[in-house]
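Budget justification, computational time. The allocation requested in the original proposal was used primarily to generate structure tokens for proteins on the priority list. As evidence of use, we reproduce two of the resulting records. The first is shown immediately below.
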Amino acid sequence: MANCAAVLALFFTISSIIGPVTSRADATASPKAAPAPSTPAPDGESFLIQGKVYCDPCRIQFPTKISYPVPNTKVILECRERESGKETKKIEGTTDSNGMYSITASGDHEEEICDVKVTKSPDQKCPEVMDDESSARVSLTDKNGVRGNTRQANPIGFMVKEIDPRCKEILEEIGIMGI
């Protein structure tokens, strides 16, 4: 658990230094809005889950300035009962050209565990599902202190098979040595 906390702290530190994951084609592009929800919001309580799928050319499992979005990736929101593990909800969505997805889920899932995950990369240059970032946990209840119905999931993604030669310099810039 301490290792996970350290990785998250490192991720947020690096994200604040390098900024958001940018497109390989246009690193200066302004951020675009997430695509329209994959399913229309039903009457009653619903949650909008938004996130990003990216490729990690450095195989370090967090975004760097050379990470890039993976468009047309199928993402799956799965909720399951805490005790039995029985699936209670499954909704699929797809990333847009910026690697962004948006999924609407109805109902309160206070007693369930919900994760957004990826399973297969559409990018042949970035085929490997990350060990640590192939899924992102999201809380789909309003009974935990989180206000509003929009949930921002942590970035999830894939890795290249061979480390990009630029990674050594990039990681040294942010204080990570020995890679």
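The second record produced under the same allocation is shown here.
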Amino acid sequence: MNTFSARDKSQTIAVLTREALQSYQVIDKKLVRNGSVPIKTADVVNDSLLIDKTLLFSTGHVTSSTKDFYIYTLDLDNGNLHKNKRQAFPTTGEVKDSQHFYTLTSEAGLKTTVQQFSKTGKFLKEAVIDAPSVGTQVFEYGDETFVMAGTEDLGYDETYYRGRLHIFDTKNLAYKRYVDLETDDAPYRKNYSSMQVINGVGYCFSDVKRKRHDTTPMEPDNTLLSYEFATGEMKEISLTGTPVKWLSKSSAYLIYVLADEETKSSLRLVNMTTGDEYILPADELIGQSSQIDVINNQYVVVAGKNHLGLYDLLTGTFLDDIKLKKKEDEADMLVKLSYLS
């Protein structure tokens, strides 16, 4: 079994596909492959989570041709791979900042089943939310588990969803409360669909905005909502321009594509700890399925369109590009870009 040769993982990233977990390091401003563990799943890979030196990920989806759903555990030290079969279809949500692995299953678009697993892939607890799984994500903070789901709003020309955080006790997965992601002073109902947690604060964009009892067409939104997990405080943050796609997989940077008035796009990266901002050209490597991370506050890695691209964070200079797949229609197999530090 091949394993990763690099022990110094400060500049190491991994690409997880249904074929293998491939490891790359940045050496002399080039991407150098330093290890691979074969996986060869029968289906697309969904969520992944790194706990200590164990990588957990799930396969299978409601639209898949296969009927099986597995949770894999991969030991990054010895390359041992184990899988546990589950009779359920997960959604395409994400598990972040957690010490447990979670799957989220939509039941006819009306309910969301939350299942909790240990880092060895052992099933622990289950809970059901009376809400559709829209933009679903899971976070752990303190002794609580936060599930990002949607709640349906009716009475407009279109049916749409607003973001809602469902909060559980992590130990027994007992339901505690929920929080709607909107502020009292904002005259709009938000359609928040995803969240990124940085330093105990969750940040999410809304897709559209519309006044509360207005039936006119909804408009693109240029605000960011922050939610502080410790206090529950929410704030609206105005952005320059309109974000058109949020691509971040980073634990420290807020990363999104920004369109200006001339419809030109750029990639904006904000270090939420220091406040430093960086702008990179959103070129042909950055597409709708791209995943982006920042390594060592020095390099930007872009995984998308069957390529792994490397950029200099400070200058935005393109440094390297590796083709990952032979067929264009295999782009959906490139599903996760994550630190291995």
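A brief technical remark on that second record: The radius of gyration is 20 Å.
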